[in-house]
Amino acid sequence: MIQYCNHCGANVTFIIPPGDSLPRHVCNACGHIHYENPRLVVGCVAEWDNRILLCRRAIEPRHGFWTLPAGFMENGETTSQAAIRETHEEAGARILIDAPFAMISIAHINQVHLFYRGRMVDAHFAAGEESLEVRLCDPEEIPWDALAFHSVKLCLERYLADRAKGTYDFHETALPAP
Amino acid sequence: MIQYCNHCGANVTFIIPPGDSLPRHVCNACGHIHYENPRLVVGCVAEWDNRILLCRRAIEPRHGFWTLPAGFMENGETTSQAAIRETHEEAGARILIDAPFAMISIAHINQVHLFYRGRMVDAHFAAGEESLEVRLCDPEEIPWDALAFHSVKLCLERYLADRAKGTYDFHETALPAP
User: Fold this and answer.
1) Distance of alpha carbon B15 from alpha carbon B38, whole angstroms
2) Based on the domain organization, do B135 and B119 belong to the same domain?
3) Which residues of B lie inside 8 Å of A (Cβ-Cβ)?
4) Both A57 and A140 in a single domain?
5) Rounded to two decimals, what is the model's pTM?
6) ipTM metric
């Protein structure tokens, strides 16, 4: 919650600035407007030998649950660089990106989840700091009831369906508020 | 530039927090970490009667230059809702979304530009507050030398090429730093 201006340290007021249509935190002293915007979470469905790379989360939210390697995109990188970096950080795997696969808006938490399709360049993987363990799963081994996020479940369902039919589409959808 | 904590108003220091790999602005008093992440700019290539809706910008950057209706995605909305809202705000047009069309990372300005394909629901359009004028352009009328942004040029080029071949792909790319 924004209560102070990050430029000058004065108090802010939540008002609609002139010419705007939405309320923003506006500094009472210097007038700086603190915009808040959705964040991109970027990850990858990465394969090795037809198996899919999954991580068990070592951090909250959803500690102990399984997910695709993914995380917040950083300033100064592209979306595909973010997917490659996150897969390396969380799963210790180096990947080649094939294509964007799914983009899922989650409006109630101000996030957009973007998943690529990719391939591991070798069989190596290892749990990073944010993972308890990492595993390559055949489709029948995917822990559907222990997945961390609905977006990950949706992405894996679409991925396996596309893989079964032999062609991959780009899937765009939104998750409803719970 | 972040100099004060927006939770408590104290000074921040730009350091790598424990367990992180990148420097962040961390509050010296309460420890709050101020993450900064890329922002999504979302817009639409909207058609009416085979012509494409373009806006001439009434604001900086690139005042007076032509662009597709697009703007920063807001918290609480989906990507397609952002495209619909921006097209209405900037061009006074109501649209139906067909599909995502192009996603362009611009790492040096910490932005991702996402353009949809869509259709106007009727012939009505009108310049919004951020537009000097709005126009429906045949391909040969597009002001290529007066376009506001490289991402818009790239998107329009790909769009016309796809339209000419009769099938639309989803295009993902990145712009190099200038």
Assistant:
1) 19
2) yes
3) 1-9, 11-12, 19, 21-22, 25, 34-40, 72-81, 89, 99-100, 103, 105, 107-108, 110, 112, 129, 170, 172, 174
4) yes
5) 0.97
6) 0.96
